[in-house]
Specification:
The chain is an alpha+beta fold. It has helices at about 60-75, 75-85, and strands at about 5-15, 20-25, 25-30, 45-50, 55-60. It has a 5-stranded antiparallel β-sheet with strand order 3-2-1-4-5. It starts with a strand and ends with a helix.
């Protein structure tokens, strides 16, 4: 099962093409942020990521709660492994 996993935007790599570097559990990958409003999406924001796309923004508390629940459900490692795979 694939779930959205929360990550933190650490860099806007290519604003023109809506690409940001997002960190999840110490792993950084480029993610498409084109579904988000560019005027309100910034470094430091937390987003929910699914198959390489940031689907929505969440606050830090919601991101931490989502990670906690994924870990409790035993889903975190699967989602993290998918995120950590080489692109």
């Amino acid at each position: 099962m694939c779930l959205a996993i929360p990550g933190k935007i650490v860099d806007i790599v290519d604003a023109e093409n809506s690409i940001a570097k997002v960190e999840v559990g110490g792993v950084r990958r480029n993610v498409n942020i084109g579904m988000l409003d560019p005027s309100t999406t910034h470094v430091g924001d937390y987003v929910l990521i699914h198959v390489g796309f940031a689907m929505s923004k969440v606050d830090e508390f919601e991101a931490e709660e989502t990670l906690r629940m994924l870990k409790e459900l035993g889903q975190y490692q699967d989602e993290f492994d998918q995120f950590a795979r080489p692109q």
